[in-house]
Design brief:
- By secondary structure, the protein is mainly α.
- The protein has one domain.
- The protein contains five helices and two strands.
Length: 180
């Protein structure tokens, strides 16, 4: 369903998808900052309880608290990355006449590459600001190492997105549209 307004062709489904995606993304970022706002004691207790649950589930110790915290970092930022990718993708698809496809300057060669690039930078910026924020929380510290661990989750999810996109196009017998 398209709405014509001011000579723009607006796709209502993509508009709704963009609004929902940005709300989910904003909520996830707020959740990450909420977790980072917990003091060191509360954060440690949460990790200990999670580790006890995992040990109960598997019947043995399969990881240390340190490893658990790093695995959680990777997962949190994988989720952030897929949410940011969807928000950017839906936003670009709202209108064909105001999308990246119509931009006179092409910094990348396809829409999918643009979504990946912007998602990566948005997620890395969030990771950096989150670690900086932790410098001001009692019992916590921000570290570049944690940003790099977050980057592992970001890059892993972007590779998964890229592979799924490529496989999906191949299944449909199409090739990715590339700009000249």
């Amino acid at each position: 369903m398209n709405l014509n307004k001011d000579k723009r062709d607006i796709n209502l489904a993509y508009l709704v998808g963009a609004v929902i995606s940005w709300i989910l993304l904003g909520s996830w970022i707020a959740f990450l900052f909420f977790l980072s706002s917990e003091d060191g004691t509360a954060s440690g207790m949460r990790s200990t309880k999670a580790l006890e649950y995992i040990e109960l589930l598997f019947g043995k110790e399969i990881m240390t608290e340190y490893v658990l915290r790093k695995v959680v970092h990777v997962i949190e930022y994988m989720i952030l990355t897929v949410l940011s990718f969807n928000a950017i993708r839906f936003t670009n698809l709202i209108s064909e006449t105001t999308s990246y496809a119509e931009s006179p300057v092409k910094l990348v060669k396809s829409d999918n590459e643009m979504y990946i690039l912007i998602s990566m930078w948005l997620s890395l910026l969030t990771a950096s600001v989150d670690e900086y924020h932790q410098l001001f929380v009692t019992g916590r510290d921000g570290s570049i190492r944690d940003v790099l661990i977050d980057a592992i989750g970001i890059v892993t999810m972007l590779l998964i997105i890229r592979i799924v996109f490529t496989i999906n196009l191949a299944r449909k017998g199409r090739k990715e549209y590339r700009y000249e």
